[in-house]
Amino acid sequence: MDVNIKQLTIPGVLLIEPKCFEDSRGYFMETFHQQKYQTAGIDQAFVQDNHSHSSRGVLRGLHYQLKHPQGKLIYAVTGTIFDVAVDIRKGSPTYGQWTGAELSAKNKRQIYVPQGFAHGFVVLSESADIIYKCTDLYAPGDEYGVLWSDPDIGIDWPVENPILSQKDIENPKLNQISESYLPG
Most-buried pick from 31, 61, 156, 164 (CB within 10 A)? Predict the structure, then answer.
């Protein structure tokens, strides 16, 4: 297979390194190949693609949808980000744990975050453009969040004073979220 896929510290969260063919003209790579990715365990159909542009220090997250959970395949087309997945599935042996990876236009890595996880990222470069494929459509009334700096989760963000939306500043800690608002 011309793609290297390995599991990160939480089962189901995958780090993907597509094969890149480079020469003096530039490069070519597949950013998604259903059959290859399905063989690696990503067996859900993607129904929506999103493009996010952010400046250095912008932190987006930690977000999830409950009734319309989204698996996400994320990669940077410009710049560098630190991307994070937090397991918020009730009863999961890795509940409340996080894993992450640096994604950049240079390293061309991707991360797959399955349904049932909160997702977020912070921009480490001057700016970054992120593309992410989703397994369900965005549902505005179904968006929830976990506080990016929840000390019980203990994410080791590589920034000290991120730029946050008001919504992300006000997200609750994981232990403040009623079980009825967490994925099973």
Answer: 61
Answer whether 92's CB lies under 8 Å from 116's CB: yes
- E-assigned strand segments in the chain: 3-7, 14-18, 20-23, 26-29, 48-55, 59-65, 72-78, 80-87, 98-104, 110-113, 117-123, 127-134, 143-145
Active site residues: 63, 132
Tens-place pLDDT, residues 49-98: 999 999 999 999 999 999 999 999 999 999 999 999 999 999 999 999 99
The span from the CA of 133 to the CA of 51, in Å, is 9
Q: How many residues does the chain have?
A: 184
What domains can you pick out in the chain, each with its CATH number?
A: 3-20+27-181 (2.60.120.10)
